[in-house]
Amino acid sequence: MSSDNQIAQEALTFADLGLSPKVLSAVTDAGYTVPTPIQLGAIPHALQGKDVLGIAQTGTGKTASFVLPMLTRLEKGRARARMPRTLILEPTRELAAQVEENFTRYGKNHKLNIALLIGGVSFDEQEKKLERGADVLIATPGRLLDHRERGKLLLNGVEILVIDEADRMLDMGFIPDIERICEMIPFTRQTLFFSATMPPEITKLTEKFLHAPVRVEVSKAASTGTNITQRLVKSGPKPWDKRETLRNLINAEADGLKNAIIFCNRKVEVAELFRSLVKYDFDAGALHGDMDQRARMQMLSNFRDGKLKLLVASDVAARGLDIPEVSHVFNYDVPIHAEDYVHRIGRTGRAGRLGKAFTIVTKSDTKYVDAIERLTGLKIEWHDGDLSTVVASESEDEAPRRGRGAGAPRRSGRKDDGERKPRGERRPRSAEPKPAEEKAQHQPELRSEPVIADNDERPARRDAIKAENAERKARPERADQPRGDRQERPRRDDRNARQRQEDNDGTVGFGDDMPAFMRVAGKV
């Protein structure tokens, strides 16, 4: 592109793109006058009904690139029940809800029915919106197919199809669902396809479902914003090393840190890091895929409104979320997929603002860092020395319990003061009372039973002693009585039997006077 053409395009405004007066009025009320490069390249072709393949880094205004021309084209016509006129597919609930907000903001001068089909919301409410007729249907692939299989949705009236964040669709395994949905929509539709990266699988998808698309690429695929300061930060390998490194970073950036998103690779790490930050009195919240939809939207709303300073999140917050004034992004974990790095740090430095992105790196993360640098074509600088200078630190209250060694916490239930006794003062094993011996000390002592050999020459005496021993075992004696005065200690059953005998009035059953009905002969 020549410098003259570039200057000419930069001088264009939204009024020069062919949008309707209603749309222009809403855009002006929102405070926008100059379109971004992706909007400048995509909107005119979309208004002409052409297929568009838009490739741009995150945070460049891709959403308005399809929302504004769709609003202009939807001014003519009317939706029918269960037959939406347009369909927008989004990979996550948050992105779908955000697109709905854009249609509400820029379509305030239109009387359009907008239906949002996402998980975590009642089917009945969504079906009522479909029955009224939807001019704009915004959906995640799974929930859309659910309504289709229930017979509540027909897609043969769709005029415009938008596939947003296509590379994220690929990562989440939605491509088979996208192919099924595309086959349900008329061949004559217009398709608008947007993505930040173009892996080979996405390229094949565009070749299959787009017809002579206009390619609008305003920046190198998988590039990062030049207004974002990127740094790598060394850390020891242990979780408490990384948590301490993160806390030090947050404190060091306190003067310029307005708010920040902290990304983790796994949901369990999101929860653990959130608890750790709260423990150290940081103003933090958590966001991950296992939270219900209401909690997720409330958490995002609190962060967007400034009620939370730090948001610990999984990659569910890495794509397309429009929070324009995020000053910092911290990668607590290096993303396994290099493309995710582009999306994560794209949450800061939006709308031309400056931003900072710090990535905490351990020795096991070097291969992922190399992949990121190959993808972006950028050598990322180290913040304060590389991994060769790392020294593992151990926080006293976060160190694992070992049971031995200096500084290890005392085991739970240990009766001493935690110090090891000198070897000479230890109690010998033989002196330690065993459980059986301790029990025996609290029981009355019984008479020892003589051992009678089988070949004893006095069998009569042997039999008498055995009988006496057997009787003594069956009737234990009290140890506190003299030997000659010992009496049998009655057991509970014996006491009950004795009480029944005392209560007996002398009656001895029926005897010979047994009633006739008890003399019925048994069956032979």
UniProtKB/TrEMBL annotation:
Pfam families: DEAD, Helicase_C. Signal peptide: none annotated. Keywords: ATP-binding, Cytoplasm, Helicase, Hydrolase, Nucleotide-binding. Its EC number is 3.6.4.13. Residues 12-40 form the DEAD-box RNA helicase Q domain. Residues 391-524 are annotated as: Disordered. PANTHER family: ATP-DEPENDENT RNA HELICASE RHLE, ATP-DEPENDENT RNA HELICASE RHLE-RELATED. This is DEAD-box ATP-dependent RNA helicase RhpA. It comes from Allomesorhizobium camelthorni.
